């Protein structure tokens, strides 16, 4: 009996993984044929936190054009140039078209560090110059707001790990989009902002087993939101769950590309971390 139980457990776990990965693909039909930018703070953020999202969105069948904008080269240990190259290698593993779709800044305004607070307005200005240079900062009421991307993906207001650089990206992204829409009341924002949901420490380290919980919470949140008449369009969450092959790609992006960052504790993250397998994005409404 013990032998049958021992054999059944890995089969059940594998079946659950495959099932949730397949079910998750139906949760994001909107993410097709889009111009998408992933906004990150440091090289390796794209692999450690966003690999399920990137692997789904760079699938050729989705028809998206995905770019990565990294606001620092992670030069805290003097490895900035090395880490820039590592990010390009990681992006290739995660499905981006080529090096031209990866932009890494090396600016004194965005120094890598837990004790460094990035200026939200300077982040917004970087985004404006990159994606909406044709729009004046304040705009005119008769102008249609335009941008060169359709979606911006970044961290939420908790930054997943609580890193202040991550959190600054969220506020900088919202600052940019509010500026883009200022004076243009009645127009639809041309860029959708989607943020990666932060979860509790316990849920961070249960790998793909967090997917059913995320699905349940998303369903309950949807039911609650649909009962509110004042709920704005776009509350729905998108769930990305990597299958076993995609999970190996995410691991390879860290272990093969980001070799300079593979300290002992990172092995625990890539082995048990849910963000290596499960991402859920929430659309933020720009008021």
General form: globular
Major beta sheet, specifics?
Answer: 7 strands, mixed
Note the run of SSEs as H and E.
Answer: HEHHEHEHEHHEHHEHHE
Structural class: alpha/beta
State the oligomer.
single chain
**Radius of gyration using CA atoms only:** 19 Å
- Beta-strand residue fraction: 5-15%
Per DSSP E runs of 2 or more residues, the count of β-strands stands at 7
Number of helices: 11
The average pLDDT value, as a whole number, equals 86
Strand order of the largest sheet: 3-2-1-4-5-7-6
Low-confidence stretches: none
Helix content: 40-55%
- The N- to C-terminal Cα distance equals 60 Å
Summarize the structure.
This protein is α/β, with parallel strands linked by helices and 287 residues long. The protein contains 11 helices and 7 strands.
Would you give an account of this structure?
The protein has about 290 residues and is α/β, with parallel strands linked by helices. Helix content is about 45%, strand content about 15%. The chain is built from 11 helices and 7 strands. A 7-stranded mixed sheet has the order 3-2-1-4-5-7-6, sandwiched between helices. Helix 5 crosses helix 7. It is globular, with a radius of gyration of 19 Å. The model has no long low-confidence stretch (mean pLDDT about 85).
């Amino acid at each position: 009996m013990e032998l049958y139980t021992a054999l059944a457990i890995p089969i059940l776990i594998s079946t659950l993984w495959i099932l949730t990965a397949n079910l998750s693909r139906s949760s994001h039909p909107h993410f097709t044929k889009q111009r998408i930018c992933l906004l990150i703070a440091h090289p390796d953020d794209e692999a450690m936190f966003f690999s399920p999202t990137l692997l789904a969105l760079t699938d050729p069948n989705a028809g998206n054009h995905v770019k990565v904008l990294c606001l620092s080269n992670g030069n805290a240990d003097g490895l900035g140039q090395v880490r820039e190259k590592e990010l390009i290698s990681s992006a290739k593993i995660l499905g981006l078209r080529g090096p031209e779709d990866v932009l890494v800044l090396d600016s004194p305004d965005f120094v890598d560090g837990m004790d460094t607070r990035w200026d939200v307005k300077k982040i917004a200005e970087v985004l404006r110059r990159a994606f909406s240079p044709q729009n004046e900062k304040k705009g005119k009421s008769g102008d249609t707001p335009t941008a060169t991307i359709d979606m911006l993906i970044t961290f939420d207001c908790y930054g997943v790990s609580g890193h202040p650089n991550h959190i600054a990206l969220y506020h900088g992204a919202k600052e940019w989009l509010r500026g883009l829409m200022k004076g243009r009341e009645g127009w639809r924002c041309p860029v959708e902002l989607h943020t990666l949901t932060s979860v509790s420490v316990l849920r961070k380290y249960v790998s793909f087993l967090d997917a059913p919980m995320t699905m349940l919470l998303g369903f309950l949140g949807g039911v609650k939101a649909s009962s509110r008449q004042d709920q704005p369009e776009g509350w729905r969450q998108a769930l990305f769950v990597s299958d076993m092959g995609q999970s190996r790609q995410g691991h390879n992006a860290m272990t093969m590309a980001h070799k300079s960052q593979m300290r002992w504790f990172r092995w625990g993250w890539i082995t048990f971390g849910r963000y290596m397998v499960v991402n859920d994005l929430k659309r933020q409404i720009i008021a």
